[in-house]
Every structure is written in structure tokens, then in C-alpha cells.
Design a protein that fits this description.
single chain, mainly alpha, two-stranded antiparallel sheet, 14 helices
């Protein structure tokens, strides 16, 4: 909105030319998202507390988690409000990639909101039954992916990290593949959100990484130099990514150990879906496995645990997801959190190296 309104004055006042630069608007979106998060945060937490929107604590989890009972949840709504305000103010709203990213974020946030509402307001510990939650994610995900495939005409070829000459064209099979990526990423982020600040750290790191990827993919000269696919309009997603990073930073102020508010499914499902659609648009679908390595490990630990117990009645980990395993091994919660962040940073650096190592 600001972009369309203020840039219109550039013909009369040259100072407004600055609004045509993605870098400037990325910075503007970051500061806006951070400001909104800091201003609304205290009021939002008080409102959640008043509405008794309190986290349901697993009785079979690590004993130290019992002290978290009563902490407000659904804090992901604060992130989403900040992201939407910043993106709508600073992004070029004629860009379809912006609307697709906002759409998947909204729809998955809606699924998470219903799940959180049933758990914390209606006191139904199971929330939305798992199969219905997946169906909801698949339905909304399919709408966005179909639009991306049919109307935007996304490239259906998969590029392999580190190998510029290995390309596979999936054709129509690209639709179920990307749907799997979006739903899988969303739920993997949701599984990671189990400790104070654990999920939001890797989320910020991942979106910072993809901010760089979407910017270079949308810049013809840089994309040509790096020999990566050039995607016209993808650079505008830098603003969306920056808004999420800044909102996450603002949220972390309240979510850092010991947390005064938790993200809830409304945040984790939405941000996971947003991460997947951004990776898809900039043709880094497979690179998402590296950038989101922590999320992948958390999801794999749950699948491994379930598979092993059903088949052999044995547990591979002391408890799943993986972060609980290390807690039960004696690691203090802050140590688990920071070490997972460190791993995320290392994985992000490996992913960024693919821009040149091809």
C-alpha cells in the first residue's frame, strides 16, 4: 500500500524513487514488522491470559515442562499480524507470488487457529483429529499449488543442489510433490515447536537464507552470473521473508527462555507452509531439506519412533520429537535450544554455498 501510494509521487519528487528498490522496502518491512510486534506484544499476551488461552502440557513429557503450565499460547497470531501488516504496506501487491505466499500463510494459520482454539479454549486436548488436520492442509495447499501450476506456470523441473546439470522434469507429478513438501514442512515445524524459542530460531535462519535466494533468483544479472534459474518477480518475496524474520525476532523477545507466550499451531503450521511455498517459488524445493534440516530431523525422529515401536515394540529415542530425547539425556533446555540454532546456522551456510558450488 505504501509502495503503490508513495511511489506514485516519484515522477514529481525524485526522493520517492527509493520505493522502487526492493532492498529499501525490505528494510522498511523489517522495521515495520518488528515495531508492530513490540507494540502489540504486551497487550496481546494480557489478552490471551484473560481468555485463559493456556498451553496444554503433556504429562508424559520431561518433568521440567510441568512448570510451563499456565503459559499463554496462540502467540503465533502476533507473528502473523505483524507479517501481514508489513507485507501489505511495503510489497508490490500486483505481484502474484506475494499473494500466494500470504494465502498459504493465512490458510494454514486458520487450520492452526482452529486446532489451538479447540485445545486451549474448548479444553479438548486432541484438538482437530490428525486426519482432518492433514486433509485441511492438503485442501488449502492444493488450491495454492494448482494456481501456481496452472495460472502462474511454475517451472516443473527440479534442480539438484551442487549439481547444475542434473535436472528432472516432473510434469504434472509436480503438483502432488509440492503438496507433499508444503504439508510435510508445515507439520515438521509444528513438531519442532516444543521448547522456548526452539522453533522460531531455525525459522528466522531459514527465512533469512531464502530471502537471499529469492532476491538473487529475481535479479536477472545475478541469476545469470550464478547460473541459477531466473524467476521474474521472485525478488519481491524478499519483503515477505524479511517481515517473517523481523516478526520472529520480535516474538522471540517474549518467547525466549523462560517463555511468557508460546507460538501454538497457528504460528508453526502457518510459518512452515510459508517456508515451503517460498522455497518452491525460487526453485529450491530440494534445498529446503538442507535449510530446514532441523525440522527434517525432528519429523524423522517421530516417524522412526512410531515405526520402531509398532514393528518391534522398541523405542529408538528416549522420547520423540528429538529435542525431548536430549532433554531426557540430561541436557538443560537452553542448551538444546542454542545447539539446535547453531546447527541451523551451519546448514544455512551450507545451503548458501550452493550458489557458487555448482
Amino acid at each position: 500500500m505504501l509502495y503503490h501510494f508513495l511511489y506514485s509521487f516519484s515522477t514529481s519528487y525524485s526522493i520517492f524513487n527509493v520505493f522502487k528498490y526492493i532492498t529499501f522496502r525490505t528494510l522498511g518491512a523489517s522495521l515495520t514488522a518488528l515495531t508492530v510486534c513490540f507494540i502489540l506484544g504486551p497487550f496481546f499476551i494480557k489478552y490471551l491470559t484473560k481468555k485463559q488461552a493456556r498451553q496444554v502440557i503433556r504429562t508424559d513429557g520431561p518433568p521440567t515442562h510441568l512448570t510451563k503450565a499456565g503459559t499463554p499460547t496462540m502467540g503465533g497470531l502476533l507473528i502473523l499480524i505483524s507479517v501481514f501488516v508489513a507485507t501489505l504496506l511495503w510489497a508490490d501487491l500486483s505481484n502474484l507470488y506475494i499473494w500466494l505466499s500470504l494465502a498459504i500463510t493465512f490458510f494454514y494459520g486458520l487450520v492452526g487457529f482452529v486446532d489451538d482454539y479447540l485445545k486451549v479454549i474448548r479444553k479438548n486436548p486432541k484438538g482437530i483429529p490428525g486426519r482432518y488436520k492433514i486433509l485441511g492442509q492438503m485442501f488449502f495447499g492444493f488450491i495454492v499449488v494448482w494456481f501456481l501450476y496452472q495460472d502462474v506456470g511454475v517451472d516443473t523441473r527440479l534442480n539438484f543442489p551442487f549439481f547444475k546439470n542434473i535436472v528432472i522434469d516432473l510434469g504434472w507429478f509436480y503438483i502432488p510433490f509440492i503438496l507433499f513438501v508444503i504439508v510435510g514442512t508445515s507439520n515438521a515445524v509444528n513438531l519442532t515447536d516444543g521448547l522456548d524459542g526452539l522453533a522460531i530460531g531455525p525459522i528466522m535462519i531459514a527465512f533469512t537464507t531464502f530471502l537471499i535466494f529469492v532476491y538473487v533468483a529475481g535479479h536477472f544479472k545475478i541469476a545469470e552470473y550464478l547460473q541459477i534459474p531466473y524467476i521474474p518477480g521472485a525478488g519481491e518475496l524478499s519483503i515477505f521473508c524479511a517481515a517473517i524474520v523481523a516478526s520472529g525476532l520480535g516474538f522471540l523477545w517474549y518467547n525466549a527462555y523462560p517463555a511468557t507466550v508460546f507460538m501454538g499451531d497457528i504460528g508453526s503450521l502457518a510459518l512452515g507452509g510459508a517456508l515451503a511455498i517460498v522455497a518452491t517459488i525460487c526453485k529450491s524445493e530440494l534445498l529446503l531439506v538442507i535449510v530446514g534440516g532441523i525440522f527434517v530431523l525432528e519429523a524423522l525422529s517421530v516417524m522412526t519412533q512410531v515405526f520402531s515401536y509398532k514393528l518391534w515394540k522398541r523405542r529408538v529415542f528416549k522420547m520423540a520429537p528429538l529435542h525431548h530425547h536430549f532433554e531426557l539425556k540430561g541436557w538443560a533446555e537452553p542448551k538444546v535450544i542454542v545447539r539446535f540454532w547453531i546447527i541451523s546456522i551451519i546448514l544455512a551456510l551450507i545451503a548458501l554455498s550452493t550458489l557458487k558450488l555448482r
